[in-house]
Amino acid sequence: MEDLINKIKSSIFLSPKAEEYVVSIAKEKKVYKGDVLIRQGQTVRNTYFVKDGCLRAYSIDKNGKEHTLQFAVKNWWISDFIGIYNNELATLTVECITDSNIIKFNAKELDGIYLIFPEFEAFQRKNLERHVVSLHKRILNQLQLSASERYELFLKQYPDIEQFTPNYHIASYLGITQQSLSRIRVRKANK
């Protein structure tokens, strides 16, 4: 819990009462590789803060192909925000790629914090701004960069992820086939 409290305190002043409230609505949880926290098509109730480990959010299209939208590592948040904010069924599945420690929040309880402690709005606004910027960059990168350039950016953003993430997850995130990913890695190794 200390990781999350410190992250919040790095952005806003957190009174002891606000800190106590956050702790009261948070549930620390150990999750294991392969665990599914949110399943596409189900109701979304929770959002997660990653203390350590790695999770991914992906969608399965009508042809059964997986499309990885996000990886979440230490100090990142993950959920299906379309499901939460549009009150729709989940468009994503969130699964654990490694054994991980997370902090689970009921999304409605977390949203209720703003009424009690308005200072949290600034913290959440910053989180949402970072999330929107990240998504915009990802979309632009998919449209404007070559697969090799996207792979290089991926390695900078997630420097240790290749150790525990299957190639097909990385290829899915980059929007390429596993064979293309292998060719890119061979070319990179031969430079």
TrEMBL record:
Matching SUPFAM superfamilies: cAMP-binding domain-like (SSF51206)
InterPro entries per record: cNMP-bd_dom, cNMP-bd_dom_sf, RmlC-like_jellyroll
Chain ranges of the Cyclic nucleotide-binding domain: 14-113
Top-level taxon of origin: Bacteria
Pfam families, per database record: cNMP_binding
Protein name: cAMP-binding protein
Protein source organism: Algibacter mikhailovii
